[in-house]
Fold this protein.
Amino acid sequence: MKVSFYATLRPIVGERTVELPLPEGATVGALVVELARRWPALCEHLFDDEGRLSRRVNLFVDGRNVRWLQGMETPLSPDRTVDVFPPVAGG
Amino acid sequence: MKLRDFGRAIAHVDLARGSYEVRPAPEDWVRKYIGARGLGVRYVLENGPEVEPLSPSNLLCFMNGPLTGSEVSMSGRWACVTKSPLTGTVTDSHQGGWTGARLRWAGFDGLVFEGAAESPVYAYIEDGTLSLRDASEVWGKGIHATVAFFRERYGEKDLSVTAIGPAGENGVRFAAWLNEDDRAFGRGGTGAVGGVKRLKAIVIRAGLRKSDVPDPDAWRSVRREMLEAIRDEANITSPKKGGLSVYGTNVLMNITNSIGALGTRNSQQTAFGDGAERISGEYVEQNILVHDPTCHACPVACKKEVEVVEGPWAGLRMESVEYEPAWSLGANCDNDDVSAVAKLIDQCNDLGLDPIELGNALSMWMEATERGLVPEGQGLAWGDTAAMVALTEAIAVRQGAGEVLAEGPARAAAGIDHPELAMAVKGQAVPAYDPRGLKGMGLGYATSNRGACHLRAYVAAAELGVVPIEADPLEWRGKGALVKTFQDLHAFSDSLDLCKFSAFAEGAEHYARQYEVAMGHPCSADDVMRAGERIYNLERYYNNLAGFGRGSDTLPPRFTEEPSTQAGSAGHVSELAPMLEEYYAARGWNAGVVPDAKLRELEIL
């Protein structure tokens, strides 16, 4: 599946969009673990001190923040779009 | 510079007589309305809400806040307050850079311009004195040439110039003031009020002055604490690390696109596809960024100076490609050429135009053209950047279709009998957050006292997950109270006057501490919220007296009736009616009207 990175997370990954193989039935939780394995520098953004999804990352599946879906349990499939942002705002 | 003396040096300038008098603001006003936005609104109310905005009788206030020009972070802001020629409401707009700070250092807390000069003048301010001088040599010139003229005359050292351009001189209803750093009093048409008064510029010479406070140790401590909060790597303000610092405000382009909250083609769509990336902060940073300018006392440096490298505008160096104009002149006009976006923003900076209003005027005209509603020979095609540049010039001098669009998109759309094509509230065009994908922002637009505005209640900070408040952007329930809280908090910070972005690192308690230490009298977080609520109600009271009553808090039907078709917000409209019910209940208002009991409770009456 395609995963896109934005703002300060993009230089860590080095690309705008990467293609990641995910097994059938994978969840956001599995994706996050895979991201941390491939790019260890992402860990501090992805996880809080208790190992939960950090507020320093906003992960969207088909345009919805997983916080408003099923969090780490949100199901993924190859046809879904995943966007990974740090917190961003402005005026 | 005794901060606790704030409010004692307000220059009342009689432009018709060519004289001025320094008078203190009433102590009661300073206590209740703090400064900048709040104090300016109080002066404008005193002048009477029935005044015709484009007449000499309208008051034009430039107000510092008690923290403007001090050493606390993000204190380089001041407010321009008047009755808006665009909306007929009271309006305030805030400018960054160093101009407000220099006014403070020159010995003034605010300027209140009354009447109109017989011929063009500028105000020259230095060392506690003000003089009105002949501006005939710069009348008709663009803002960049005007700044260059005064720099040549007075030298660059310690000099600030804020000026109107041809748009203000010609009464364009969304004309702006800009300074030497291209920072704008952007919204509400304050530049047109300057034009009517024949006030071309305010020129200030003043070097840095240190703050004198009752408790210097506490002052150092509170400044350090605020600076640490802003620098915290967890915050988007963190210098060179946070998204706002690295990419500027345009870091928003991709996220609003992803969630279906990026108005496109006059908000007919809610996302711009791959076009968003090509006008985004990430693209700018990678391809055309040359410098990160900042404002007085700000470590964030969110401004983004660019140099166009290709195309018809190659070589143009300008600041700043912000999110709002990149949206209004980009996605909303179906334009994915970042070079053209930079050119159009630079034009606004020189002609003295609000780029949010301009972009909405152009996108409305494009949709009207597509629907066959525009007179032959005056049409504008989607994404035709050369024609956009030409029409922008025409708007500033009111020629051809520019004459119609100079009235702003709301009046222009009404003029072709299709008011529904203007994406505006109370006559002011919407900013870059589509209310179908960010429900709280839509409520904020509808209930803003100055017409559609993203900054009165920047609940996007919660809806986008920047501040630790749970707020699903697609959920309408709970947004009434949330919008009220944000509006009140920001009314206070706008009155201090601190940059809105301070709220990404600070809250009511932080604002209270800074105010308390600066002014030398107690202030709590509750006091901050109550003063903010008072200021918000004062503005609403003004608007009610000016004729804005029941039914004034609306959104264009496109947002409430035409569902989004893009991912993230597909199927959604703005549920404005139930949100308004919640909001009015939280405010204690009767359908948008402030009852006398509320005015008395807040000590306004």
Residues 41 and 66 of chain A are 21 Å apart (CA to CA).
